[in-house]
Amino acid sequence: MKPLNFSLPAGSGAVIKARAGGASLDVLRFLAALFILLFHYGTNAPRDLETIIPVFRQGWLATDFFLMLSGYVLSRAYGRRLVESGMRRSHFFLRRFARLWPSHIIVLLAFGVFVLASGAVGLMPKHPEKYGLFAFVAQAFMVHGWGMFASPSWNVPTWTISALLICYGLFSFYAPWIWRLKRWQLAALALGVLMVAQIFALNVVRHPLVDLPFTWGLGRAIPLFIIGSLIERATSGLVAPKPAFWLGSVGVLMVLPFLCLLPRSIGMDTLLLALLAVVLAVSGGVTFPETRATQLMGRASFALFLVHSLVGAVWFGVAFKLIDHFGLGAAAQWGLWGFGVALAIATAFVFDALVDKPLSARVSRLSFVKGGV
Q1: Would you say residue 9 lies in a domain?
Q2: Domain tally, the chain
Q3: Radius of gyration of the chain (CA)
Q4: Alpha helices in 327-371 (DSSP H)
Q5: Domain assignment present for 2
């Protein structure tokens, strides 16, 4: 086995031919996964992060942005190929499933081993109801985000991956149609999808769209994914100058914490979604040098999304024991928490290099995946 090498190639080989949105979207995917990690780890901090950083009070932002970003990235990466190549919808769906499932099942099995081993030594989980056999089987088949459960379980973040499978299938049907629309029509359609989804959420579920209950996860994921893909089509080919990128993205990051201090309302939720859409649009149109580092961040974003719950369950279980045993103070507790964040990030890069990347390459060469069924 070749040794891991995360270093940049020497000389000009460190820079890959730049594409609009190439580096920025890779970094954005990693930051989105990191945001989700910090939100999930926030309650394990010595002081809940939402009491320190207001944006964590609106934790739905992380998931909603991830769903919109998924629609945006999929449309950019596969939309034209799906529309112009004549790829069968079943083949497209199979390729997407084959990309996600192998690494997902490995992490899930590791989670199962961890829970069983913990129980064998008398360390039962705080919420044992989240680790049932039926939920495990549903998650193994990636159907756990389709509305059959009242709350997430096992590897919690993967409910969005389950929901995205439905989004991928829908995308294969509507992609040829939206490719014929003009920019203003795409923008109007995105607004219409948002309005219809909000009306449905408020009148049927009696809850805001942006953080619908888990049972209604598809009702949240589908419109946000569609909006992300429509934003990509509406801004495709547009160039965002670097000053516009910095003004748009940094400006949004600066104003979000203040907006999150204000009372929740449909108007405020819509404004926050619109600001996230601005970040997507300017990130996809700006060109920065692409390096091995930015590409690694883009790849590791999926691994970070997959592994951070398991790493957190293992590490914070140990950390809390150390805190109780030694009576550690606040500084040491923050140190242990920070180490947990760093450990999850390091694990993601290692998992990507040793598991996800080689496994993805091997699965993609399988005849029934490569040629379709």
Answers
A1: no
A2: 1
A3: 21
A4: 330-351, 357-364, 367-370
A5: no
